[in-house]
Prior knowledge:
Layout: H1 15-35, H2 42-49, H3 53-60, H4 63-77, H5 87-103, H6 105-118, H7 122-139, H8 141-149, H9 158-176, H10 182-197, H11 204-210
Helix pairs in contact: 1-2, 1-4, 1-6, 2-3, 4-7, 5-9, 5-10, 6-7, 9-10
Amino acid sequence: MTVEQAGPGTTRPGGRTARIRAAVLRATGDLLAEHGFARLDLADVASRAEVGKTTVYRRWGNPAGLVADLLTEMAEQSLPRTETGTLLGDLTANARLVQRTLSDARQGALFRAVIAAAVWDDRTDGALRRFYDVRIGEWAPCVQQAIARGEVPEGTDGREVIKAVSAPLYYRLLASREPIDEAAADRAAGAAAIAARAGAYLRPDVRQAARPERADEPGM
């Protein structure tokens, strides 16, 4: 759910086409970080990337198309999941990766711009949702591994655990503007691990099945 800086779902192009795409998406990210989505202009992107305006207009069409492709690229190029052998270790690795991304001046500004744009632009919203779906899906298996080791209860929802790790860090980015440091990342990971062990992230069907029936409920 984090990036180290990669669209649409097609075969990745090679040669000159790949170089053009990389330059355009880099320029898109830079301009988003500098000026936000509202001022993202395809002509400015073309100028920054040193490619023809016609190429940018023909391939991406509008700013939302650029952002959608940028988010696809970011998801593809983000670092793979770390496996430490413990749930806390894995969640801490995830939290620190999020922390490094969001505390980076360029990346933090880029995410603020994209998240703000997603509030009112449907295509950007869809691209952002796909980005996070990919990143959460990459890390959720660490919870399944923790279930297999007996660290957390059977039926724990791995995706919800990963969301809980990132949420406090995004709150700092978007709301409180407090420092996004390693201490904050470690607290987020530790809190999510404790809650997962206590059964806070059981799937609703599992939680319902485990709830004892009361004498006054139907069927008793």
